[in-house]
Amino acid sequence: MKAIVIEDGEVGARLVLRSVPEPRPAPDELLVRIMTAGLNRADLALSSNSHVANPLRIAGGEMAGEVIEVGSACFGFSAGDRVMGLTPGCYAEQVCIDHRIAIRIPDKIDWKTAASLPAWFMTAHNALVTEGNLRRGEAVMVQGAASGVGIATVQLARHFGASRVIGVARSLAKLERLKPFGLDVALVAEDDWPGSVRRVTDGNGVELVVDMVGGGALNGNLESAALRGRIVAVGRLGGAVDQLDINLLAFKRLKLIGVSFRSRTITERAAIAQLFANQIVPEIADGGLSPVIDAVFPLADVAAAHEYLKSNAHFGKSLLEIGYDKAANG
To answer: What's the half-sphere exposure (Cβ side, CA atoms, 13 Å) at 20?
Structure first.
């Protein structure tokens, strides 16, 4: 099969289209023919890393496709089922995924839409609803709102009844594009956004902050939060280290919550996937929610796709269209 493999070059790692052996599913895995793969900022780091979570060093981690073989210990799936999910090695024509974290795709959802959901919408749903415990009528601030997970968080905050959705980002133009998706207030990161948050909330602050930025934003998030508010730390676009104003944290009696899929067990990830499948996927199928898709690249143009991500010119999801051709692969 064809796959994008990470190879070490003279000036660092590079992505190369290769023919590699087809994977074989373990007893608890599904073998999936990939139709579309999602591109994520995390993939950019993998492309320069000498170690990835599969022996062939195939890049990518998000996909939508068709089950072609079911492992002996799997249940609930059959060949021909349409599934999406997060698993290593998705820049390829086939991949294996643990059946416990595979999410069934309803007939009303097309391949491109499906491949746009797991990384962004499942992360946003977990941060906003499960960990952030959003309650209807609360005000929400999304830090890094123009990022992929940020866009999904804005949509979900409106969907779940936030009274006001405030977005902070570096680009006012991108924030303005979020207005049709539920953003009420757009704040530019270089300005005094904590002061603006207090003004638009009558001095109270927001009950919930979902943060994609990390470094450089922490204390502004504390200032923006209401008494007994919650801050969910999701991303590290601005860096992984910051200084914490413990006095402000204590005075406001805030909850600072960290989330990451990397440290979760397969059982924990399965529970997140199931909740997402029950609460969000039906809304996507019925048209109540919809991912923002920006660009679609063929598998062979993955280098151009990565450069596009690095440029920060995109607004919404970029995808790789694959569509495994069995005849061409013998």
So the answer is: 22
Using a 10 angstrom Cβ sphere, with 0-12 exposed, 13-18 middle and 19 or more buried, the burial of residue 227 is exposed
139 phi and psi angles, rounded to 5 deg: -90, 140
Which amino acid appears at position 205 of this protein? G
Say how far apart CA 306 and CA 70 lie, in whole Å.
32
Per-residue pLDDT of the chain (330 residues; tens, 9 = 90+): 999 999 887 677 889 999 999 999 999 999 999 999 999 998 987 654 544 567 889 999 999 999 999 999 999 999 999 999 999 999 999 999 999 999 999 999 999 999 999 999 999 999 999 999 999 999 999 999 999 999 999 999 999 999 999 999 999 999 999 999 999 999 998 889 999 999 999 999 999 999 999 999 999 999 999 999 999 999 998 899 999 999 999 999 999 999 998 899 999 999 999 999 999 999 999 999 999 999 999 999 999 999 999 998 889 999 999 985 444 443
Nearest partner of 149 among 106, 210, 66, judged by Cα: 210
Give, rounded to a whole angstrom, the gap between the first and last alpha carbons of the chain.
Answer: 9
Two tokens, residue 285: 């199928």
